[in-house]
Amino acid sequence: MITRRSLLALLGPVVAIALLLAVPAAAGDFEQRAEKFIVSLAQQAIDSLAKPGVQRGERIKRFRVMFNDHFAVHAIGRFVLGRHWQQATDKEQAEYLALFEDLMVVSYVDRFRKYAGENLRVVKSRIEGDSTATVFTEIVRPDIGQAVQVIWRIGAKGDMLKILDVLVEGTSLSQTLRADFGSIIRQREGKVAALIHELRLKTAELKLPDKN
Amino acid sequence: MTASVRRILPSRAIVFVAALLILTGGCATAPNPADREAVAEFAALNDPAEPTNRAVFAINRGIDAVILKPVATFYRDYIPKFFQDRMNDVLDNLRSPVIFVNDLLQGEIDRAIATLARFVVNSTFGLAGLNDLATAIGMEGHDEDFGQTLAVWGVPEGPYVMLPLFGPSNPRDTVGLVVDFLVDPFNVWAGNTNRDYAILSRTGARGVDQRAVHMEALDDIERTSLDYYASIRSLYRQRRAEEIRNGKPSATMPAPGLSQAPAGGNAAASDQAARTQ
Prior knowledge:
The complex is a heterodimer of chains A (212) and B (277).
Chain A: H1 4-22, H2 30-49, H3 56-70, H4 73-81, H5 84-87, H6 90-115, E1 120-128, E2 132-141, E3 146-157, E4 160-168, E5 171-172, H7 173-187, H8 192-207
Antiparallel strand pairs in A: 1-2, 2-3, 3-4, 4-5
Helix pairs in contact in A: 2-3, 3-6, 4-6, 4-7, 6-8
Chain B: H1 2-8, H2 12-25, H3 36-45, H4 50-78, H5 81-105, H6 109-124, H7 133-136, H8 146-152, E1 161-163, E2 167-169, H9 171-183, H10 185-192, H11 196-224, H12 228-244, H13 267-276
Helix pairs in contact in B: 1-10, 2-4, 4-11, 5-6, 5-11, 8-9, 10-11
């Protein structure tokens, strides 16, 4: 017969381990959480985007969900607009953010699919301050057989993790977009409305069926 | 090397075209001095000859579309991968002496030794550089050039310049390009023995090889950017900065951050937070 005492003795270590695991995420395992976050993103990309025979419209839908789940869309969008954010009206800000999300989704849906079969390997990670972590990864490009260095900057807000920036071989996605959008606004006398117009044209063009 | 190098270096025709472009293209319009943010932005862009640079960029793209891209596409799609790899290895190995010199000039003795060791292994056991055996046995290579050396010495990059054929650059990297060309033992040998065709073939092969390697990335940027010229300018500078640092991280760039302020909070304050993170 199993007595209450022996049951306790049996379950004691299990309970202790469970308690240990339940301890709120300490700063020490922020690195691990960030690494897991990137690995799971890569796996999701393989699972939901790499399947053959999925229509592009459906892939765009899936990628939009993935993108919003994993990227700090609002923060990146604002950073990219830089000093022009404050000059924009509330309506322009909302319109811009929606188009920015749209552009990212239709720009990267095919690239994610192209690279989805590739091996992403976490090299190391590092904590920067108490709410940002950097995960260093290597992605082997099958077409040239070379490894590409990809760095993910991840921000934490409570339990939530979001990607703030992606750096490919030292070039930052958000810096490049900021230069790109900034140049359009500068050429149109600082008008955010002009950028919104260009974004609308570009996203419409990129939504057209596969040209690849 | 002198006579034939002079023949290979930018000829009078190119100088003439450049002069014409500068005269017709003119300079970028400076912003209203009262708008301090716009003035700061203009200074940070550091592209005073933007209209001229855009004109050169357009010509470069035209040449690329007609010659380089079709050749590189054919090379990538129809030449056996084995041959492409051998070509890549030979071209890389030929660059080793210049990398070695720049490693030394930057005071990177360990990296210089690594470059020298790679060159010896690949030139002998690798059959005149046809096989990158060094990488296979764990001796990874790296690149260096005199533009990077000047940067390490503290020479500022100067304004952005779009070179005809050679693409994005600046005065510092342009000087680097010429110096690397002049000290390259292969070029010295070819120049001394009247083998201009060797220099041209090597430059052409390198161009096609690099164009093929970057095909996909460039196509994506061209397709998805709003202003291809501005995107390339930004990417070139970021890439060079990374190469100069030899991949060591830098924390000086502003970056997006997750604002801790409640949603709809003070826009200026959270923008400031985003900059400092």
